[in-house]
Amino acid sequence: MPELSRGGAVSIVAHQDDDILFMNPDIDASLSAGEANTTIFVTAGDAGLGPAYWGGREEGAKAAYSVMTGVDTWVDEAIQLDINGRSIEVVSSHPEGLSDVRLYFLRLPDGGGSLTPDQEQQLARLEEGTLDTVTAVDGSVTYTRSDLVETLTALLDLHAPTQVRLQIADGDNAAGEHTDHVNVTEFAEEALAGYDADSFTVTQYVQYASKDMPANLSEAEADRALAIMEAYAEHDPGVWESDGTLSQVYLDWTGRQYVDRVTEVDPDTPWTLADPVIEAPDEPADPAEGGGGYEVAGPDGFLFNIGSTGAITPKDWFVPSQSDAWDQNSDYIYEVTRVFVADDGTRTEETLLFETVAEGQLAPVADDPADPDSIPPVPVEPEPGEPDPVDPTMPLGNVVYSLDGEDSFLFTIDANSGEIAPEAWFTPSLDDAWDHDEDHVYQVTRIATDENGTTVTEDLSFETTAEGLVSLTSDAPADPIFNPTPTEPQPDPDPDPAPDSGIDFFSLAGEDSQLFTIDRATGEVDTQDWFTPTRDDAWDRDEDHFYEITRVTHFETGEEAEEPLTFETLADDSFVQVPSEGGAALMALLSLPGDGDLPPDQIEAEMEVMDPIE
């Protein structure tokens, strides 16, 4: 193995400029004092733009450390680690003749940018358990969540730092933070729990939010930090304005350094992780065998994620509170159904009940025969015949009713009678489809659970029959087509029709289209009255603050033209359209906050606000 330094400091960050933007002048001062410094870059910072871009960012990181060390020549080598019984290789570089300064590049995929839905937010999905593995963008290593944490712990053990520098994952200063920053910090904090050292200091730095804080560096410190950043910037085309100047936000960040928290760890005060949100085993007691997968259902299932092992975790945006009930019937008891669907379609369900025991904390409802922690899994045996929506089919004994299905969040159900009604805030409209597939047919499943845990399910469909009124449809297809005048689209319509070119009307489609309205005559797009974009609360389907819709132009000839539109909520809560063509599109991809850690100011310069969205 190459010669590795021990002691000094280890910095663990998401992207190749996070350290020099948010942890300087501390890193620079430590290097000037001759202390060992190791930096671990967990993601490739690729933004989906390929090896030329992320490779350039790695060269930029080296250039920045060359300014700080005075050495321009670098040695690239690989470090072999034994992780969970297998050998993995991590790319590493150090200045020639200076092995106590070392950079590691794990090259895991960035969370956003020019990525397909199955590629984006991989670290976030790995953290929440909805993705089993993540592969480095160069194909070198595939990590499970455990592998990644163990890799970080192994690097800590190799270098034995007395100082550890991290980003932040929670607190007021982390609001609006890039998901990669948050998830990398969570992995690093967990890795510290396994670090074999008795005494060390953990310093965690403010990131994006620092630009809005008072400048606190001297002129000389700020100039030095900016010079280091400019060395990096020569290798990252996304940090420059169109006139060739560095974006203002980098001057803001390099003029500041703020520490969010410092934790002194010693034998009397060991490093501890924050308490989990759910204080209980969240995996099945008897994991299902054979092929299949898990789903989460139940009246409060929308608040939780479920992983491939059946592990249940709350959504990132769901913070249990004793003063604010998020559950459907507002009794602070969260009713969740863990469903295993076998390859042959057989469903096995397990009902779990959680209660809020402290701010931000859930625990299973106390084990009580009348209110069990969990009902043993049982196969679902639906009763034959047509369900009666008014007087639902009931199993024997005491029965509790709940709702499931893609549109269930729009309805309430009486747990005792099974009576279904729309939510108070849901007003059905013939002009505005609230349902998941926007066909004005609302599909829900009524679930009756008896005292033995046996369930009976009824699939119900409701249709908007008048303003403010939904009615049960009998013999309705599972996914009816709501189109009174179907047309046959012709191939290759003009994607950008000229005015007065025979346009019949406009419509909206896409995964986030339910949050928007469109003028059928003009094609003008606006947000729903009840939708207020904010950086603190992602309403979009994949919760990355990017709202993806498609404006569809319908021509009198029956042809259709589709125009993908993307909007983003910026750090200052402004809502802007992301360009989709030409150089503006490239700059938009390079300028997404954190997908390269590029400035919101630059994004605003490259985007056009789409009236009337502001």
UniProtKB/TrEMBL annotation:
<feature type="region of interest" description="Disordered">
    <location>
        <begin position="364"/>
        <end position="391"/>
    </location>
</feature>
<dbReference type="InterPro" id="IPR024078">
    <property type="entry name" value="LmbE-like_dom_sf"/>
</dbReference>
<dbReference type="InterPro" id="IPR003737">
    <property type="entry name" value="GlcNAc_PI_deacetylase-related"/>
</dbReference>
<dbReference type="GO" id="GO:0000225">
    <property type="term" value="F:N-acetylglucosaminylphosphatidylinositol deacetylase activity"/>
</dbReference>
<feature type="region of interest" description="Disordered">
    <location>
        <begin position="473"/>
        <end position="502"/>
    </location>
</feature>
<dbReference type="Pfam" id="PF02585">
    <property type="entry name" value="PIG-L"/>
</dbReference>
<protein>
    <submittedName>
        <fullName>LmbE family N-acetylglucosaminyl deacetylase</fullName>
    </submittedName>
</protein>
<feature type="region of interest" description="Disordered">
    <location>
        <begin position="270"/>
        <end position="290"/>
    </location>
</feature>
